[in-house]
Design brief:
rod-shaped; 3 helices
């Protein structure tokens, strides 16, 4: 039984098969259960174009005059909802 190495070869083969199966299971679980959790925006409320426009104004990238000009365009083009 132990002289020809057959028993040990079988166990060694199973060990090599075990780790790839575990790796694939972890990847599949991450993709299946982790989908939509990070960066999907599913948990965040939708932003309006006005909300997006307020950010550069708040950070100083837009002057109040530029903000008002762009706000008029948004108001003219639609309801302001994404």
């Amino acid at each position: 039984m132990f002289n020809d190495g057959g028993y040990m070869m079988d166990m060694h083969g199973m060990e090599w098969a075990f780790w790839p199966v575990v790796f694939v299971a972890v990847v599949v679980a991450f993709l299946f259960f982790g989908r939509g959790r990070i960066g999907s925006g599913r948990d965040r409320p939708s932003e309006t174009p006005h909300d997006v426009l307020r950010r550069p104004l708040a950070s100083g990238d837009l002057t109040p005059g530029e903000y008002e000009e762009r706000k008029v365009v948004l108001d003219r083009d639609g309801s302001g909802r994404v």
